[in-house]
Amino acid sequence: MYDDQKIDDTQMKRAPTPTEKRTKIPLRRAPMPLARRLLQICTTAMAESLEGEDLTPLQYGVLAYVWGEPDIDQLGLAARVGIDRTNTSLLVDQLEAKGLIARRVSDEDRRVRQLRLTLRGDSVHKRLAPIVRRRQDQLLATLGDAERDAFMQMLIRVIDANEELARPGTGRKKRLPVVA
Q: Residue 38 maps to which CATH number?
């Protein structure tokens, strides 16, 4: 139920759920504000997991995708990470400069750049993956095993059903032209 829906008398008399009791900040029961709040929590958790490393959460995400799909091309990576091609190229440039990713021209299509972790990139990923996994488990610790699985399946279902709305850069303010 969303905040702005009418509540009948029986719903008003119910006891607050454990989450409602603990929540210090009133949360709006609507998907978009809740998703934004979850994004903030996940971003902070990831940043804390990478503290002391020379990696941003997005750079680590790229490492994880490339680790999981060796020889992924930059366009496929952009689609999975949910960023535009220009930013994907910049991220790959940064990770290549750090010696974590290697780019090579595809044998099938010379226009395609395939990505693979270097030995150093693989080592960094292997070292950080358990830390990130533990942090993800901590975030979901409030849910039982079946609830975690259901939560993940529901997130995937909502994302899959609305994939056409996943457009990198949507909602950003357009830059005004610089007048000399």
A: 1.10.10.10
Segments forming the whole domain that contains residue 145:
29-160
- Asked, for residue 76, whether it belongs to a domain, the answer is yes
CA dist 138 and 49 (Å) reads 12
- Tell me if 67 is assigned to some domain: yes
Q: What's the number of domains the chain is made of?
A: 1
Identify whether the C-beta of residue 74 lies closer than 8 Å to the C-beta of residue 89: yes
Residue 49 lies in a domain: yes
Domain-embedded: residue 144: yes
Report the range of poorest mean pLDDT among 9-18, 74-83, 90-99, 107-116.
Answer: 9-18
Are the C-beta atoms of residues 91 and 80 closer than 8 Å to each other?
Answer: no
Tens digits of per-residue pLDDT, 62-93? 999 999 999 999 989 998 888 888 889 999 99
Angle between helices 119-139 and 31-49 (to 10 degrees): 130
